[in-house]
Amino acid sequence: MLDQTQSAIATDRTAATRRVAPTKRGNPTLRALRAAWRRPTFLVAAVIIITTCLMALVPALFTSTDPQDCTLSNSRKGVSAGHPMGYDMQGCDYFSNVVHGARTSMEVGVLTALFIFIVALITGSLAGYFGGIVDSVVSRLADVLLGMPVMVASLVVLYQFRERTIWTIVFVLVLFGWAGTMRYMRGSVLQVKNNEYVQAARVLGVSSLTILRRHVLPNAIMPLIVMTTLGVGAGMTAEAGFAILGVGLKLPAYSWGLQIAQASRDGNWQLAPHLMLFPALMLGLCTLAFVVIGETLRDVLDVRSR
Amino acid sequence: MTLPLLQIRDLHIRFQKDGAQLDAISDLSLDIERGSTTVVLGESGSGKSLTAKAVMGLLPPGAEVVSGSVRFDGRELVGLADRELRRLRGDAIAMIFQDALTALNPVTPIGNQIAEVHRIHERISKREAWSRAVASLDAVRIPDAARRAKDYPFQFSGGMRQRAMIAMAITRNPDLLIADEPTTALDVTVQAQILELLDDLRAERNLALLLITHDIGVAAQSADNAVVMYAGRLAERGTIGEILDEPAHPYTSGLLGSVPGPEHRGRDLPTIQGAPPSLDDLPGGCAFHPRCALATDVCRDRLPARTDFTTTHTTWCHHAEEALDGQPAAATV
Amino acid sequence: MASPLLQLSDVHRNYRVRSTPLRRHSGEVHAVNGVDLVVRPGETVGIVGESGCGKSTLARLLVGLEQPTSGTVSWRGDDVSGLNRAQRHHFHRSIQLVFQDPHASLNPRRSIRDSVAEGILTHGLVPRNQVEDRVTELLSQVGLNAGYLHRYPHELSGGQLQRIGIARALAVEPQLLVCDEPVSALDISIQAQVLNLLNDLKRELDLAIVFIAHDLDVVQHMADRIVTMYLGKVVESGPCEEVYGTSAHPYTWALLSATPRRAGSDRERIMLQGDPPSPVELPTGCVFHTRCFAARAECSTQSPALLPVAGATEQHSAACHFADEIAKSSTSIPQSA
Fold first, then answer.
1. Which residues of B touch A20 (CB under 8 A)?
2. This prediction's pTM
3. How many domains is chain C built from?
């Protein structure tokens, strides 16, 4: 039973010293992120998202074909050499179209999630932390929005715009989407603010805003980050939904939503299933990737497990 | 001499955690007689709660019995099929917990919950089960039991809920009642009532009571026999008198010494230095040696063998004789 | 006798509660119900009582986490409500709190250094470049070395975290430390270490301590004076030896009898029935009469005042109609310790 190293360490008799296994050391947030990287599903999802981001930023990396270089005689032709996704109705290279569509879809998803994050962070933390009138106003407003049939309301608002850009879409999605996320954030803040370390800071005389910034937000923001990640996928899906309903972007813009909308029109997809398959596949993969990342973050960011 | 009701021999329980194997309980042997109260004393991580769960066959996921035996009324429980264990649980062996509020179902009346226990184990009518439930509530001295049986847990005060949980445990007339920190969450005046109740039930029904606690006062007041656990092993066992008056393990005497009493007024309390080790980082040799004032090289290298002082009093310490003589043995920081 | 550091006079703290399907009562909770309390420099006042007796609310009132509904709090003779902003800031700094649960009382995402330094930085107590030295000094005062500076709470044991919690409180140089059940979440072998530490700090820094606990042995070890609370009221107060030796209130006597001891006591053992009543529907008359073994008719109608006990030192007082009788029969044969 003689173990030299162990007994050598064990002779350390500092009062109240407990040795801690090295894996447990360090900043809890960084530890959580490191844990996420070790999960294979997280890596796969990250690769999908990084690839799509590259498509959105530098489409030339993926295709040198101009999406508007079309030959009508190639209309709806299937997959062939050099054209991995075939041709669309106008006889343009579909792969190039799908690659160029990534930008719009990503923009709508990311911008929507980002703005919802900002609005929910501010309103949710103020409402949760200060309560009172601020809370009443914010929460009642959210109740009204959450009580509305979101799809119908969005349609009504979108119809008011003659020209619809991605900003129009983002505006409508944020307008009807922030309330749910705000509630989440508010609940999280309410929970954190009752912690003893928050009271300890109050007893020390730390000001309210500093407590909010230093103690409440860092511990309350994790659910919001998870929601935001999931929200990117939801924004991308919503963009496609609007396009199919005819209240989204209009041609000649490129977006996966528009491509799905075109494919679903006049039974096109029955004649040429690839028109539906490829943009839907990309959209599905991206949404799924964001969901996976969101769920992984939800798992690992719960640092309170000791 | 007849066999003890519960006989644990060389029990070894291992935990899987993050790929590592941790010895949660090692070489645990323990006898419990009918009609007696045995206290398991220990701090967090000492394995005292796990011992109870092992007897109940309710080990948490990742924990398994590697070797050893648990004999209850002559019957081996280790390796017994789940079905058989379920038949024993709540019938011949029952358990009560620290927090009655989470142990009771909040949406079912107390009486129904107790009646349910009977109907799990026996084919009897609902009416019969109900009347037994009321009788049990009466036995734990809940006033107006027939009416209170229809109440929900939240309508009971803290002490009453604890009584209701005890009623549920004793309703099948078990031979062994395991109480895991049954009074830790209670106020002292209520704790005194519950301890008295448990002792009365033990005497009336010839129950064997296995009481798990960290509170030396509770142990002193309730126990016939006591075992002291440290880092998953027995440190010492004996009658409660032997443990309290002639502790022969430095850990036991250290624990006893660090409870404040009138003799310490105006002075520093004797302390055990350091903190209990965590299971994934157990010191070699005797696990207590880094905190022990009597520790020598042999303590770092070898597990202590048992030393028997009387037929009941046993300790596991290389310096048992010294510890017995030189009290308090634990170092003062 | 030294002039009081902190004095509470007839302090009340009520909460409104609404009735919900799971809570039958509605109305006002009288968490703290007319408490008088004096804390003098350098002394330890122990507060004992069961859950719901208002001892935790009292702790929160003392450190300014709650404001009294009525009554006055004076600091060194000045009514706190009359202080200006800067004075109030200083007053709050002078009273610090040590929490019960060491795991919950430290921000899991901040390093030990940041947690302990927070008060120092907030009040600008030392120049920025000396903060780290000051934190190291505070850690050594509570028995931890500088190696803990950049650790996080999840890496430490309960006893170590409680030391950090104490260091954080000491960082703003308080004169009064309120300890709310500071050792009840710790292992027994660790409790004694923390109690010794508190006593050492009290001597070194000339601290006054308000020590709140349900464990009467622990309070007896720590306190110079004891205050027993029941349902938001002080029912007995006095020097530690007197209250423990000659309880003048039946509730204190019952608490002492109920505390499980290694050695049996030689005085008569009192067993209370039932749980404490809800602080929403306070009993009329003496709040304790519903559980009191010595209650008579007048106890349910007349509320007893907190009065000096006959034959005791003037500091020993009890709120019981029959305090003198109780004191006579509760007296134990002096232990030859």
1. 281
2. 0.84
3. 2
